[in-house]
């Protein structure tokens, strides 16, 4: 009987499931909420979920009973609680996409928002910033010689502080390597030669994009990552969210996590996507509408004709910034585009869920997409939205195109489209998210000119070795870090004070089109001012000459 | 795997470096210390002047599990506004510090809230060149802890010496990390309290009555009960709670 099994036993105890929860009213009310609410109860009908098996097995030689892992959903009878006995539902209750994924992961036929459930984890991702801390907790709690629950389900991706002389940062990658070796971790995208990243055959770069490109993001699955932008993977019709080191350490030992089922907020994008808009404009629009806490603890579910026409990279941009609205996760249903993308990236089969047409939503917001315009998020908050054209008097010191949010291949195609045959007026830093994006920049071309050449001719700085780089500042020698009071227009995801380095730095979040347009003028610029867009939306790959 | 140390010893001292074994330290040679001058081997700092080689224990630097004594928590208050994000709580450049290493845990504390802009917050949470804060309680507005999932955020605040946050609302990952790490009591206030307290005033949180009292203005404000979060932070975080409540075996 090892510690892992004890933890599972502990985790299956109904009392303990209240661990994370702040009870608003006295316990007798049994109103258990996970974490904090925002502006009132988010649970309209707060049923109490107790899906734990009451069967127990006495362990030889101990006084401990072990509860079987959760498979059944018969709740222990308690007179003052409302008991949800899902097994008695002979007719399937409607569920949203997220609820279906979670119910599968919890081995239950039905879950509803507000319920606390134990889910089986399909993938746990960590990187160089949070990995060492997570590993420390895992070893401390499960033992120096403990083994992770499944070495093929842990994906370790160094990406944050890689190309730096900072010794602690370098040491942190060493820690990951040692752990990967000792645990036989199958997916560890190592880097050893920092001087020439091309010399590292395994190194990928930014974790969220690497997860997608390496086929780890599969519809219907549950992914946790020690990074807030893990919600990026919701673009693949899966449940993906960020957690801290302690939770991740727990998963390493047990392969499970206790979470609360989030309510779903529905966002539907109708109409036509104008050629001058990108997914970044859509998500900045949403965050500006609902605020940085507008989706706290909830799911953002995106649908509509416009969404269905977005590429997988654009869908990721949309889901990536769900956390900036406080969201727990974002999700876009899997469709043909998703399957096409995944072909050749993963051999595994996956399960595709759809939201039921009569499912319950926390809120419903509709957009007529062709009424929207390019927007920016002004300093110092991602919800400080304004139209790009309203900010045309803002003088800008530099432009940054990179990160999981805005440093993917299509983001660079978009930037190259604007910059082709033109010169930037201000320093324009390019950081591809992954090795593959870097290679694409040299491989893809527009009008016979590779993206790399377009950028070079335009006077851009880069492409730099792929990593998170200056999106979050980082060690002082990080490429493109803002070290003085500068105004920067960036395709990244946050602009709180000090986000990219200096506290006096002012960061405007924007789409790659807006960022490139700004580079051409030196002022915040609506891309329509400097480029003649088409009447019909042009997808990124329709812009490039050809691709293999 | 033993940590690699460069040193020469004439005495065979069976000491144990109480840091994660996978970290190798490059230390300057130790001066030989007579055996009888090392009363508790585990607790000694073996190397003068270089923190990278000292053998601190977590319980020397951390108060997790021992955050309060009785129901009354009294201390100075530090007031912040809305949407204090994790980059302001602990700027990303300090995330190379690994919280499970005692020396780095301490250093994290010294940087707590260093990301707050000086113009809005001329009084700093941790004075320059200090390791700890003089403020026990943080009073905040909405959406405290928004942004990243980094546990370094509640850990830095706790390592610095903060014991409780009283906010109008929290971001979810931060709230979860507070109880998982056992670093902070994440109280939710019923009212918006930012205008009812000033940085430097004394306050007292009554854990029995779920109120916070401003000892200068004598006004009292209701708090939402911590509920099941309370025993977890009292115990010292998720895993400690599991051990103390008998759910998982104590470590030998």
UniProtKB/TrEMBL annotation, chain A:
Keyword Membrane: no
Keywords: 4Fe-4S, Iron, Iron-sulfur, Lyase, Metal-binding
Pfam families in UniProt: Aconitase
One MF annotation (Gene Ontology) recorded for this entry: 3-isopropylmalate dehydratase activity
InterPro entries in alphabetical order: Acnase/IPM_dHydase_lsu_aba_1/3, Acoase/IPM_deHydtase_lsu_aba, Aconitase_4Fe-4S_dom, Homoacnase/IPMdehydase_lsu, IPM_dehydratase_rel_enz, IPMI_cat
Protein's UniProt keywords contain Lipoprotein: no
Boundaries of every Aconitase/3-isopropylmalate dehydratase large subunit alpha/beta/alpha domain copy: 100-385, 390-522
SUPFAM superfamilies according to UniProt: Aconitase iron-sulfur domain
Any single GO BP term: oxoacid metabolic process
NCBIfam families reported in the protein's UniProt record: hacA_fam (TIGR01343), PRK00402.1 (NF001614)
Record-given protein name: Aconitase/3-isopropylmalate dehydratase large subunit alpha/beta/alpha domain-containing protein
Organism: Galdieria partita
TrEMBL record, chain B:
Species the sequence originates in: Galdieria partita
GO MF annotation terms: hydro-lyase activity
Aconitase A/isopropylmalate dehydratase small subunit swivel domain: residues covered: 131-182
Name by which UniProt lists this protein: Aconitase A/isopropylmalate dehydratase small subunit swivel domain-containing protein
Domain of life, source organism: Eukaryota
NCBIfam families in UniProt: LEUD_arch
Classification via Gene3D superfamilies: Aconitase, domain 4
Pfam family, one: Aconitase_C
Alphabetical UniProt keywords: Lyase
Coiled-coil residue windows: none
Protein family according to the UniProt entry: Belongs to the LeuD family. LeuD type 2 subfamily.
């Amino acid at each position: 009987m090892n510690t892992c099994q004890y933890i599972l036993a502990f985790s299956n105890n109904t009392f303990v499931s209240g661990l994370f929860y702040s009870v608003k009213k006295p316990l007798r009310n049994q109103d258990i909420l996970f974490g904090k609410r925002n502006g009132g109860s988010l649970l309209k009908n707060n049923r109490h979920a107790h899906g734990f098996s009451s069967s127990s097995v006495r362990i030889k030689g101990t006084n401990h009973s072990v509860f079987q892992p959760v498979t059944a959903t018969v709740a222990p009878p308690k007179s003052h609680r409302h008991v949800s006995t899902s097994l008695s539902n002979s007719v399937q209750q409607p569920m949203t996409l997220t609820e279906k994924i979670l119910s599968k992961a919890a081995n239950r036929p039905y879950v509803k928002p507000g319920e606390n459930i134990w889910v089986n984890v399909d993938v746990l991702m960590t990187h160089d910033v949070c990995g060492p801390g997570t590993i420390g907790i895992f070893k401390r709690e499960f033992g120096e010689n403990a083994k992770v629950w499944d070495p093929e389900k842990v994906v370790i991706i160094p990406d944050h502080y890689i190309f730096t002389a900072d010794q602690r940062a370098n040491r942190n990658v060493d820690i990951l390597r040692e752990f990967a070796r000792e645990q036989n971790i199958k997916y560890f995208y190592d880097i050893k030669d920092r001087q020439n990243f091309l010399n590292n055959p395994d190194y990928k770069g930014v974790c969220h994009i690497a997860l997608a490109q390496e086929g780890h993001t599969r519809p219907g699955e549950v992914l946790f990552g020690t990074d807030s932008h893990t919600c990026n993977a919701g673009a693949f019709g899966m449940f993906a969210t960020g957690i801290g080191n302690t939770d991740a350490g727990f998963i390493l030992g047990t392969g499970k996590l206790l979470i609360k089922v989030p309510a779903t907020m529905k966002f539907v994008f109708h109409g036509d996507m104008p050629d001058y808009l990108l997914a970044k404009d859509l998500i900045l629009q949403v965050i500006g509408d609902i605020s940085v806490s507008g989706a706290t603890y909830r799911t953002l579910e995106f649908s509509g004709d416009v969404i269905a026409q977005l590429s997988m990279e654009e869908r990721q941009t949309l889901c990536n910034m769900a956390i900036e609205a406080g969201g727990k996760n974002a999700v876009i249903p899997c469709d043909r585009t998703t399957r096409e993308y995944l072909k050749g990236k993963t051999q595994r089969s996956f399960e595709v869920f759809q939201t039921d047409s009569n499912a319950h939503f926390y809120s419903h917001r509709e957009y007529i997409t062709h009424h929207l315009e390019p927007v920016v998020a002004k300093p110092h908050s991602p919800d400080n939205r304004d139209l790009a054209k309203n900010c045309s008097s803002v003088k800008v010191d530099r432009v940054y195109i990179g990160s999981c949010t805005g440093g993917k291949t299509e983001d660079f195609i978009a930037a190259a489209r604007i910059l082709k045959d033109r010169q930037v007026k201000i320093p324009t830093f390019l950081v591809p998210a992954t090795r593959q994006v870097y290679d694409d920049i040299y491989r893809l071309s527009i009008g016979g000119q590779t993206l790399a050449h377009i950028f070079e001719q335009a006077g851009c700085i880069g492409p730099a070795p792929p990593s998170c780089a200056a999106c979050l500042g980082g060690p002082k020698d990080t490429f493109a870090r803002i070290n003085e009071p500068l105004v920067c227009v960036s395709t990244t995801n946050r602009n709180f004070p000090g986000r990219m380095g200096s506290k006096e730095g002012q960061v405007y979040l924007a789409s790659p089109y807006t960022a490139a347009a700004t580079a051409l003028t030196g002022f915040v610029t609506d891309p329509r001012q400097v480029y003649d867009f088409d009447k019909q939306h042009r997808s990124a790959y329709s812009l490039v000459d050809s691709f293999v | 795997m033993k940590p690699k140390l460069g040193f020469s010893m004439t005495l065979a001292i069976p000491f144990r470096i109480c840091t994660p074994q996978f970290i190798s330290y490059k230390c300057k040679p130790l001066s030989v210390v007579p055996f009888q001058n090392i009363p508790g081997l585990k607790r000694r700092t073996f190397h003068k002047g270089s923190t990278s080689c000292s053998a601190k224990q977590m319980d020397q630097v951390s108060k997790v599990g021992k955050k309060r004594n009785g129901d009354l928590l009294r201390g100075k208050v530090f007031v912040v506004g809305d949407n204090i994000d994790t980059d302001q709580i602990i700027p990303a450049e300090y995330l190379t510090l690994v919280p499970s290493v005692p020396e780095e845990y301490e250093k994290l504390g010294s940087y707590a809230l260093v990301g707050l802009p000086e113009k809005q917050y001329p009084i700093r949470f941790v004075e320059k060149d200090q390791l700890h804060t003089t403020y026990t309680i943080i009073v905040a507005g909405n959406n405290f802890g928004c942004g990243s999932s980094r546990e370094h955020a509640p850990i830095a605040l706790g390592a610095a010496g903060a014991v409780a946050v009283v906010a109008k609302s929290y971001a979810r990952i931060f709230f979860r990390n507070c109880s998982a790490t056992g670093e902070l009591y994440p109280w939710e206030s019923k009212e918006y309290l930012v205008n009812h307290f000033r940085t430097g005033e004394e306050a007292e949180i009554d854990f029995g009555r779920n109120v916070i009292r401003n000892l200068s203005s004598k006004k009292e404000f209701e708090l939402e009960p911590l509920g099941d979060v309370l025993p977890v932070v009292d115990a010292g975080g998720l895993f400690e709670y599991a051990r103390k409540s008998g759910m998982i075996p104590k470590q030998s």
